[in-house]
What we know:
The chain is an alpha+beta fold. It has helices at 52-60, 69-72, 126-129, 141-152, 202-221, 225-249; strands spanning 2-4, 11-13, 20-22, 29-33, 36-43, 74-75, 79-91, 97-102, 121-123, 133-134, 157-175, 178-185, 191-193. It is 30% helix and 31% strand. Strand 3 (20-22) and strand 4 form a beta hairpin. Helix 5 packs antiparallel against helix 6 (225-249).
Amino acid sequence: MQVGCTQCGAQVTVQATDRLLVCPFCDTALVVDGSATLFHEVMVPTVTAAETAAHLRRFLGGRDTVADLDRDAVLGEPALEYFPFWAFTAAGPEGDRVVLQPAAPSSLQGLQGLGLPAGTTRPMSREVTGDAAVIEPEVPVETAREWLATRFGHEVAIRRTVLYHLPLYRTPYSWRGKSYRAAVDGVSGRVFPADFPAKAEAPYLMVAALALIVFGVEGILISNPGLKLLAYLVSALPIVGIAWLTMKKV
């Protein structure tokens, strides 16, 4: 099969199974999608493997995770990989913007609709990626364009389409005998969890129910406004204490 190089226009012979290639005439990195060729670039990592632990523990100490997870989790060794994204430069009333869509399936949360992180890009080559795993794209570009049209409207004008490989550090960790997975963006340090031990909702609901019952009973039994306010204040102190302990323990 013959395809045209996006950079120099030369006809390049490719096999039916070829997806990633380099133009033999101008050395441009390309990706073949159907009968079209598109630019293929890679984002150079700025976060080192040694720095991923700090980014991950900062995420584990957030408000959505169980208490003390950042301190108690046992982190595994990070493994660098380059994950593919279709990058669409879309025109808008406030100027062009680049929207990313995963070009391969993933269990990581938060990959949909990313913006392109600020960093250095280069033509895709093993000189940049080294021995790290490079995930090949599986999602056709037309499928990704349909997602873009669904999100932003079918009238969206796409000025440029590029396949980017972004560096991600896959980092496993364990907590109380269970294994979890996450990835740290090798450019921004943002964490994309696959799964994590989240805070349980039941204790918070119990505290809310207790407050509702106590204040409701006081409101019914006490008719004097001054005494009612005093009772509310007295009851609020232990309830706030229980809520604080719940937040620290859960």
